[in-house]
Design goal:
Helix content is 38%, strand content 15%. The protein is built from 6 helices and 9 strands, in the order βαααβαββαβββββα. A 7-stranded mixed sheet has the order 1-2-9-8-7-4-5. Strands 3-6 form a two-stranded antiparallel sheet. 27% of the residues are buried. The N terminus is likely disordered.
């Protein structure tokens, strides 16, 4: 016969990329196109020259290869916020990808760069026109243990990123420009957000290890939930059916 103890079906959470997080969620006003252009104009002349030479090529390549952005989706913000609340309350493993990582930071009280063009100018990579960059992984973090590398190559398909870190989170990877590329909650086994898209890098072993670790954490969460449910039933005097 089958046991009556059933664990929850949701043993982990993946938050994917897509629409921008509504700035109202982190108590900011949405920047207008004119305001974004004004921020960009504040950069130095040499950066403008670099932008004129490099930006057109990068723009075309990223438009062809990046995930389309659908503006702001407040309904999605609300739904994923509730999912995060549930996962956080039940200590479920969470992996945030691009927008997902940004929402996780906002959930903890952090803020975002609404447009990275106002923060830095993308530098040219002479070896490739693909949206790719090198990041540095912080030693001693969960991410460092899972990826097993100090630096690694990732894709770059985003125009927003983490600004001020939410309390309780740490930056576990960054790029030379200073943009945060990964965040995590050090007091949790698996609560991590990455700015890149690891699902587009299945050929890279370190990215596969990230997903394997997520699956392992979800299995452990399922087992823990099952054991708690069994203990509660025993405490209430519920007899378990005998196998046979």
């Amino acid at each position: 016969s089958h046991s009556t103890v059933r664990g929850p079906r949701n043993n982990g959470l993946v938050l994917g990329g897509g629409a921008d997080v509504d700035p109202a969620v982190y108590r900011q006003e949405r920047l207008s196109r004119a305001e974004k252009q004004e921020l960009v104009r504040g950069r130095s002349k040499w950066r403008w020259a670099l932008s004129v030479l490099v930006a057109p090529l990068i723009f075309v390549v990223r438009r062809l290869s990046s995930v389309p952005h659908g503006g702001i989706d407040t309904a999605r913000d609300g739904m994923e916020w509730r999912l995060l609340e549930h996962a956080h309350r039940h200590d479920l493993p969470v992996l945030g990808i691009c927008r997902g990582a940004q929402l996780m930071n906002v959930f903890f009280g952090g803020t975002l760069h609404q447009d990275l063009q106002s923060f830095y100018v993308e530098t040219a990579n002479p070896w490739t026109v693909l949206p790719r960059k090198r990041i540095s992984v912080v030693a001693g973090t969960h991410l460092s243990r899972w990826l097993e590398c100090e630096t690694c190559s990732v894709n770059s398909l985003h125009r927003q990123a983490v600004d001020a870190l939410g309390p309780g989170l740490v930056a576990s990877a960054s790029e030379p420009t200073g943009v945060i590329q990964a965040i995590e909650a050090p007091d949790r086994e698996f609560f991590i957000g990455v700015q890149w898209h690891p699902e587009y890098l299945p050929q890279r072993r370190e990215q596969r290890r990230l997903f394997r670790q997520l699956v392992s954490a979800a299995r452990a969460s399922q087992q823990s939930s099952r054991e708690r449910a069994l203990a509660e039933q025993r405490a209430q005097g519920v007899e378990q059916p005998q196998g046979g």
